[in-house]
Amino acid sequence: MKLQGSIQINEVGLRDGLQLEDRILSVEQKIKLVDALIDANVKTIEFGSFVHPKLVPQMKNSRELYELISEKHQDVDFIALIPNLKGVILAAEVGVQRVNTVLSASNTHNLQNVRKTKRQSLEEFLRIKEYCEEKEILLDCSIATTFGCPFEGDIHEEVIFSIIESVIQAGVNVITLADTTGMANPKQVYDLSKNVLEKWPNQPFNLHFHNTRGMGLANVLGGIQAGISSFDASLGGLGGCPFAPGATGNICTEDVVHMLEEMQLKTDISLDNLLEASKMLRSILDHELPGQILKSGKSSRLYPVPAI
Amino acid sequence: MKLQGSIQINEVGLRDGLQLEDRILSVEQKIKLVDALIDANVKTIEFGSFVHPKLVPQMKNSRELYELISEKHQDVDFIALIPNLKGVILAAEVGVQRVNTVLSASNTHNLQNVRKTKRQSLEEFLRIKEYCEEKEILLDCSIATTFGCPFEGDIHEEVIFSIIESVIQAGVNVITLADTTGMANPKQVYDLSKNVLEKWPNQPFNLHFHNTRGMGLANVLGGIQAGISSFDASLGGLGGCPFAPGATGNICTEDVVHMLEEMQLKTDISLDNLLEASKMLRSILDHELPGQILKSGKSSRLYPVPAI
């Protein structure tokens, strides 16, 4: 198996990971986590979202958080999730320089998620793009339910291609193909990624997986084999799925980094420091996290030989 | 990603899965589980082991269990794990027709596991083989710690090759390359499997993984890509690791079958019935199991669209 090069990891625990947690973290707690992630040399962090505070209370302090972390860590890419133009205007007010907006490949999911049809969302994307250009803000786009929709099921490849083409035409930084509810399988990930990279060889693509059905790391492998070198992951595997109580969450940052290291792929991240950050998260939330390496230790961990 | 053909699944939950459980299952409970597995069309079941009952109390009723299930299900391959000649003699007494013995690639692990050096274990293998030939018992061999030893670390490929060569020379049915404590990564699995299949194209090989570090299904994918078509798995992902409290166990049968189905690979197993068997196991053990599909449902499970 020929794998080489270096893989980019985008930490999304503070946004996608935390948003389903009951315990609302203070700005101070979030800053501690950001500091710990940066100690582990994580360079891209989705730190929060600019949505209505009633919808996602956990994200209410995103504004204050950004002001403090952006001042402290000027060499880190802090990304805000924004669902609409209003969100990016709020983000711009505090000087956010990179935002990620979301469109669903499934019309039903898009309506549920942002109360817009796909056509309306694409129109909103154009307005967001125009605004971002004016303010010199980098605009990423996540395509939710790319690998399947919990309401509609399979999404035809042509539907994904058409959305990708639209956002590339409008102008976009990174496109994330997101497996929003953990329906992807590694063959599907490989095949779609391969086709997308062949069609748009100059467009940066990122993949976003949940480990809902245990295939999270297998999907990362499928993506890497197809030539993708950028992945979202969540510290401790925090996340979960609103449809599947008890199911695991986003793929776990430290588990991904561990697998990549074991396969001799570079990430620039310090796994030991990442594990410290994950311990801190577990202690702040006061419950176990789905990630495995925090429990098992690394593959390279050796044990003393018991006397026989 | 070109994947095709059909994959053989060997259920090891009743042996490797149960052996670390505190709650000792009665013969009746085990029979119920075997019946449920067979309802799901599982055709190869490692049902127990013939070891000293003080060492593994859970396996104490293996003899009685075999007598009842072998009579009831004559078209199923029931395999007994046997650590030594004494074990196979006990198994033969009740008419067991297929046994699996274990050798460790790591000398330290072999001493810990069966109180023998590797050389002594290979000598024992020859005695077991001779006995099995005389009794017309099929003899499989699992090579423990193939992908790493928790005491010695990496195991050189040449060491694995030499053990494989020795057991093939002696005469063996299926060889299992076992990742005893979940140290394998998919690149390593692919590379070793590829090399082994090239060296011994006519020898049946099987892979045994634990999901200790979250890479279980990724490792299955690596094995399949290399051309392996037979895997051990444990209902509900039961198992665990004596070295890593809280770590997940063997790869989960229903999660593996689900991934294979999603990738259009055949197994002949009914996933729905397998999930019923896993529910039964959870209810008998009265605790949650590490498997994901039992919690999340299949990827194909659709949800009613909520009113907006």
Descriptive notes:
In chain A, strand 6 (175-178), helix 8 (186-199) and strand 7 (205-208) form a beta-alpha-beta unit. The longest helix of chain A has 18 residues, at 118-135. Chain A is globular and about 70 Å long. Chain A has helices at 13-17, 27-39, 62-72, 85-93, 107-114, 118-135, 157-170, 186-199, 216-226, 253-262, 271-285, 293-296; strands at residues 8-11, 44-49, 77-82, 98-104, 138-144, 175-178, 205-208, 230-233. By secondary structure, chain A is α/β, with parallel strands linked by helices. Chain A contains twelve helices and eight strands. The first copy, chain A, has a single domain (8-296), classed as TIM Barrel (Alpha-Beta Barrel). In chain A, helix 4 runs parallel beside helix 6 (118-135). In chain A, the strands form two sheets. Chain A has a six-stranded parallel β-sheet with strand order 2-3-4-5-6-7. The mean pLDDT of chain A is 95. At the A-B interface, helix 5, helix 8, helix 9, helix 10 and helix 12 of A face helix 5, helix 8, helix 9, helix 10 and helix 12 of B.
Total beta strands of chain A: 8
Gyration radius from CA atoms of chain A, angstroms: 19 Å
The greatest inter-chain interface is formed by: A-B, 63 and 63 residues
| Straight-line N-to-C gap of chain A | 39 Å
- Widest sheet, order of strands of chain A: 2-3-4-5-6-7
- What is the helix/strand order of chain A? EHHEHEHEHHEHEHEHEHHH
CATH topology of chain A: TIM Barrel
- Tell me which CATH architecture of chain A applies here: Alpha-Beta Barrel
What is the beta-strand fraction of chain A?
A: 5-15%
- The number of helical elements of chain A comes to 12
Mean pLDDT of chain A: 95
